[in-house]
Amino acid sequence: MFQTRAIPLTYEYLSRQRRHFKRMTSLSVHNFLVLYKFIGGDEMCYNLKFDYVIKTTQKKRIAEGTLTPLDCLLMTLIRLRRGFALEDIAMMFGVSCSFASKVFYTYIQLLYLQFVRLREKIFTPRGAQPKSSLPRCLKPFTNYRVTLDVTSIKIQAPYHYRQQGNTWSSYKSENCVNYMVGCNKSGGTSFVSRGFEGAISDIELFAKSGIIDMLHPNDVILGDRGFTVQHLCDLVGAKVIYPPFLGDRERLSAEEELLTKKIAAGRVHVERLIRKIKCFLLLKRITNRMIPILDQCFYVAACLVNFDGPNVQ
């Protein structure tokens, strides 16, 4: 729709098309401006440098200099949300491909650095979610703190054979990077780990993610069957609840079946959260050149999901 426009795409134009603005960026116009102020507004964005050694011609610098910081942030969010190739996004905004690449890299780093400052605050304090305020599906779990799950992002096979082996997931049968995602009582993002190579186990990922340092005594974590990490949670006095294993038995007991259903009802929201994160289509086409900023892209996408508001009633 926008790729055939004779006039370059700008924030001023797209902000008048509110329905398309939401679809292209995942944010409403109001939330977009809130995000712009959050990352520093004009004071920060007008002082950003995309390149310290400029070798382009004066004519090209003038043409590319017409992009405002709002346009640059818009370009970044559209590429992250819609997954457009650099060539396409450059044509949409009427700039060179190299300049579009520098804008995206710079603004993704800025967004990541501003969001990561809130890492401790995003991990919802236990006092902020008393049992009386929990949704019905989480009320059975006293001292509930977070629901965890692991998701993987498919990547292009690395050139180095050792990296190929380390990123290969026998479970997914593809090269991938694994992330642990935490969901709060409202279905929003509360924790995102850094990326780990696909061959890592859920237990090892949990141990290296740093979440243990953020837990307190008596905190309750909901996890999948792969989260047999009670020995790690014992270090801080926390408790992890996951579905019971059948083992050598023919069937679960009535109490275990009831617990399994309660855990499934509570965990469904972290799966919905991960599905929303993966709606940022750039995460579906990770090439080797993008791997260095994959962690930043994933973290920013996870934080942008929180702008949708509560997802659990």
Folded structure, characterized:
Helices cover 42% and strands 11% of the residues. The protein has 313 residues and is of the alpha/beta class. The chain has 2 domains: 11-116, no CATH class; 120-308, Nucleotidyltransferase, domain 5 (2-Layer Sandwich). Strands 1, 2, 3, 4, 5, 6 and 7 form a 7-stranded mixed sheet that branches. Helix 7 packs across helix 8. The longest helix is centred in the last third of the chain and has 24 residues, at 254-277.
Low-confidence stretches: 1-5, 56-63
Q: Name the helix and strand elements from N-terminus to C-terminus, one letter apiece.
A: HHHHHHHHHEHEEEEHEHEHH
Briefly note the structural class of the backbone: alpha/beta
| Strand segment count | 7
Oligomeric assembly: single chain
Indicate the CATH topology of the largest domain.
Nucleotidyltransferase, domain 5
Overall pLDDT metric = 87
Name the overall outline.
Answer: globular
**Largest sheet, described in full?**
7 strands, mixed
Number of helices: 14
State which percent range the strand residues make up.
Answer: 5-15%
Radius of gyration: 22 Å
N-to-C span: 36 Å
Q: How many separate domains make up the residues?
A: 2
CATH class of the largest domain: Alpha Beta
Proportion of helical residues: 40-55%
CATH architecture of the largest domain: 2-Layer Sandwich
| Relevant CATH superfamily of the largest domain | Ribonuclease H-like superfamily/Ribonuclease H
